[in-house]
Fold this sequence. Notes:
With 147 residues, the chain is mainly β. It has a single domain (39-145), classed as Immunoglobulin-like (Sandwich). The protein has strands spanning 2-5, 9-10, 21-22, 25-28, 39-42, 45-51, 55-58, 64-65, 68-71, 77-85, 93-94, 103-109, 116-125, 131-145.
Amino acid sequence: MIFLPSRNIWTPQRKWGQRKLQRGIICATAVYSGKEPLLVSGTNVNASEEGFAVSGRVPSTGSAFTNVTVTGGIGPFTYAWTKQTDADGPDFVQSGATLKNNGWYGTRSDLNLDNTETWKVVVTDTGDSNNTAEDTISVTLIWTNLS
């Protein structure tokens, strides 16, 4: 709380036409919540494999993961991933639709012209009135035929 000396202040009328001049103190209170705005950013995902076949699994085992960074807010947070655009060929498979660091894999072919899907993550701060922030990343999975 901060106290500031005030200038002369006119008080409301006591009787018709009369006012009283007073010196006083003005009290100002500032409230700092201590939280920063909720922000989210994710890294793009790039994975490639090669082999002596027209198609194959990319990556060959497991998944290729993004790294999501959340700043601000209060927490805990929830995560929801949704696909925004498709790649050519079979859809990528996500391994963590509600996880912070989602992963993807897929069967790819060297015939696929477009090997990239875009995905959006929406982060909800359940500890702060369900405020949300979002980011969009690209997921690229490429197969190269060596035959």
